[in-house]
Amino acid sequence: MLKIENLHVNVEGREVLHDLNLHIKEGETHVLMGPNGSGKTTLLRAAMGFSGYDVTEGRIFFKGRDVTELPMHERARYGMGIMFQRPPTISGLKLGKLLQALSGAERKVIEEYAKKMHMDDFLDRDVNSGFSGGEIKRSEVLQLMIQQPDFVMLDEPESGVDLENISLIGKSIAMLVEKDRHIINRHKSGLIITHTGYILDYIDADAGHMLCDGEIKCDGNPREILKVIQEKGYQECIRCQKIL
């Protein structure tokens, strides 16, 4: 689904990622952890094709196709989706209109999706304007649900969210990455950044990675990696990997 080889990324003239390799197979969901400033968000934005995230070396493959040079909208059209950690407020654009533009769906269908995320009263409001943290996250998940991408990247979906919203968002994300029962052998995939690990209560993650100083330092069982980080900090993961 996603294959990243020897990736080097510069942001504002500074190399943030270097020699990064990652392989996510069809139907797999991976979890990415790491300290602030380690390059996690840069990885997601570079994979999605955001401007300002300059790939200076390496390649990005999506569903077997080299997308390194493709613009963001082409990658989205090909089946990539992303949820931001801090999405912008878009004054003058109603949420319902945005969902219609993303999906081409009729208002009735959009309302059905919105009800699932308790967002049906927000369709005629400007996108993220006056939304609480939990409402912004629900809006982001709703946008992904109606797009139905094959591969989703989520940047700290549980941050700034209360327990009630975490449950709703977690269950909805699980639906985004589960097998599509209507299409034989079609599996959706995901890459999720998490600091708290709460999202692991709702998804069946296949692998975990610890990113530090622009490199993936550790791969393994996501719950085991999280436990070590919680008990001993990120440096213990790095030390352990060096010993291995």
From TrEMBL:
Q: Which CDD domains match?
A: ABC_FeS_Assembly
What Pfam families is this protein classified in?
ABC_tran
All copies of the ABC transporter domain together span 2-238
Q: Which domain of life is it from?
A: Archaea
Q: Which InterPro entries match?
A: AAA+_ATPase, ABC_transporter-like_ATP-bd, FeS-cluster_ATPase_SufC, P-loop_NTPase
What does the UniProt keyword field contain? ATP-binding, Nucleotide-binding
The record's section on Gene3D superfamilies has: P-loop containing nucleotide triphosphate hydrolases (3.40.50.300)
For this protein, the record's PROSITE patterns field holds:
ABC_TRANSPORTER_2 (PS50893)
Q: Name one GO molecular function term.
A: ATP hydrolysis activity
Q: What is this protein called?
A: Iron-regulated ABC transporter ATPase subunit SufC
